[in-house]
Amino acid sequence: LHADYRRRLAELVPHRPEVTAALTDMKDSGWALGAITSGEPATQIRKLHTAQLDHLVDTVITTGASDLCEPRGDLMRKAVEDLDAVPDTEVWMVSDRATDVVGAHTAGLGAIWISRGRTLAPDDPQPESVCETVVEAARWLAASRPM
């Protein structure tokens, strides 16, 4: 039953053409993209495939594959390593303030929080930017990237 749930969950991830277009523009501009997520690797890869984003992602790091932990920054550091990136010049899009913003900052990365209509409390970890959507975050990154 649990296996069916995981399979079905991955099948329900929507394809959002505007997100695919925004991330394609980032790739075309030279960005390396990584997906950092909790869960089992096979499920997360199926989600990326269903959303039609798998061809845009250079690495997928999941908590289900190891003992890496988001708040400690382990997942972010592993992605930086896999992407051959420089932490102090990279900014990461995140959506969960409690783990992802803390993890990004612990790893020496900047953080963009995808709010989806939510607001941060004053005592929440504060990202470098708050954007409503992934598309808005991609635009923010493109505008703020040093050339």
From TrEMBL:
Keywords: Hydrolase. One of its GO terms (molecular function) is hydrolase activity. SUPFAM superfamilies: HAD-like (SSF56784). The keyword Hydrolase applies. The keyword Cell inner membrane does not apply. Coiled coil: none annotated. It comes from the Bacteria. This is HAD hydrolase-like protein. It comes from Streptomyces microflavus.
